[in-house]
Amino acid sequence: MDKSVPKKKSRCDSVRDFFTSAKFLIYMGHALSTWGDRMWNFAVAVFLVELYGNSLLLTAVYGLVVAGSVLLLGAIIGDWVDRNPRLKVARTSLLVQNSCVILCGILLMLVFQFKEQLVELYNGWILTTCYILVITIANIANLASTATSITIQRDWVVVVAGQDSSKLADMNATVRIIDQLTNILAPMVVGQIMAFGSHFIGCGFISGWNLCSMCLEYMLLWKVYQKTPALAVKAGQKEQQQELKQLSPPGDLENGQSPEESSQPLMSENSVVAKADSHQENSCCYQVMEPLRTFKAGWVSYYNQNIFFAGMSLAFLYMTVLGFDCITTGYAYTQGLNGSVLSLLMGASAVSGICGTVAFTWVRKKCGLIRTGFISGVAQLSCLMLCVASVFAPGSPFDLTVSPFKDIYTHLIGEKILPEADYSLTTVQAGENTTTAAPTEELPHLQYYMSVSLLFAGVIAARVGLWSFDLTVTQLIQENVIESERGVINGVQNSMNYLLDLLHFIMVILAPNPEAFGLLVIISVSFVAMGHIMYFRFAFKSLGRRLFLCCSPEQKVETVDSPSLPTTV
């Protein structure tokens, strides 16, 4: 009897398989997690401004605490991710993150409801304690979110993709597109809820969302864990099993003796040394110094990685004012752009970022991963030249004769910040005795907008190269860092990113007036250029002159000298 030829899957079967695959379940879990994160990150800044009388003080303190915590604890968090089973890490970080957000939301609801009474209790110290608790709990939530990001985006995604580099690139690009979309839509939704309802309702909505999302996310991660058996075993467990097999003599295995049994005499001979080591490890001083040793070992390991310069190049891109944060938004207000125009520009920036993620997958297939980073860097720098040109274009307020330290003391402790949506206006203004008013309705001459138009044209166009470059470095770290060090290396990478981000805020504090913003633009472009020079050094060391030969990966195999297994790029 002839064997029947297997039938091809129908379109319905293919669609069903996709929606039940581990890859799609990871997308869904990431979308839920990112949506909650974006809502909370947007809302907590607004809540802190509202609580402290339309002042940016609490928001600035919160940002400093968050950045400093990740900077100091990034390596330790990554080491914890490496040392524990994947499901335990995902479950713990998910539970801590969402529980902290829920608790913080409830606390904020109580503060908004009883603020007047709290002000009168113990001369306002109860209210101050509430502020400290909100910032502390929110910081713990951010640290847990960092752990979740490392374990899911930097580890689980790699395991689910298997040894398929193209599949890994597609998954990274899809995850980044989800980030871009949620970064726009989530703040819009929670902003509308707070605008048409109240801050009290906004806190309740976010707390309820995180409660429901936590259950759904864990269910999705559990499904992914069941569908991907490789997630159950980490590299450390595999290496221990292999070492036991290599240490056991062949004769012992022939006699039916297990590796553990055959190693018993060896352990008894070294029992004195083992007891001394265990006594040292159990000492109080040793345990106190353990986080410092982990911190040092993580940074040393990061420095010794073959992708060190690639990671540093990505971190240097954070030392810039050329992004859609409160600094650039505030500068735009001083140059006559209103909120409506800025919202359109932010939408265009998101579309540009999505185009960058799509371009990444296409260019990587044509030219290889390392060359994609080089091409993306050239594209980003070329677009940023428009920002440099904007400094000297008509309408630019650039004037180095105005001291950047003018009345800086008054600026930092100064006056009332503009109410509601205009509170960010004064964050980049010079320290005058009066707050700059919103732009007048009378439109100035067309040349007045030439400088700011070139600035935002460069910023938006550069997002294509920026996000493509970010995906390149992310995948290089995923493919070239051994599995047992994947968490700690990504933790140190996050710390480096936050360090350069902190430096860019310090730079703005030292030169807050619009006349000095052009200098900040030039410094930002210089740091971006230094970052891409570092990447060029890494790429040229990896490929040599082949870097300039844009051949397909099928014609030429790109490998990076790495302590791990060779990786086809």
Description:
- α2 (22-51) runs parallel beside α7.
- Residues 239-276, 407-443 and 552-569 have low confidence and may be disordered.
- The chain is mostly helical and 569 residues long.
- It has helices at residues 11-19, 22-51, 57-83, 86-113, 115-120, 125-161, 165-196, 199-227, 235-247, 250-254, 259-262, 264-269, 271-282, 284-304, 308-316, 326-334, 339-367, 369-392, 408-413, 450-480, 486-510, 517-543.
Count the helices. How many?
22
Give the count of structural domains: 2
Task: Determine the N-to-C terminus distance.
Answer: 47 Å
How does CATH name the architecture of the largest domain? Up-down Bundle
One letter per element, helices H and strands E, the order comes to HHHHHHHHHHHHHHHHHHHHHH
Shape from CA axes? globular
CATH homologous superfamily heading of the largest domain? MFS general substrate transporter like domains
Label the structural class: mainly alpha
- CATH class value of the largest domain: Mainly Alpha
Subcellular location: Basolateral cell membrane; Membrane
Main location: membrane
InterPro entries: Ferroportin-1 (IPR009716), MFS_trans_sf (IPR036259)
Pfam families: FPN1
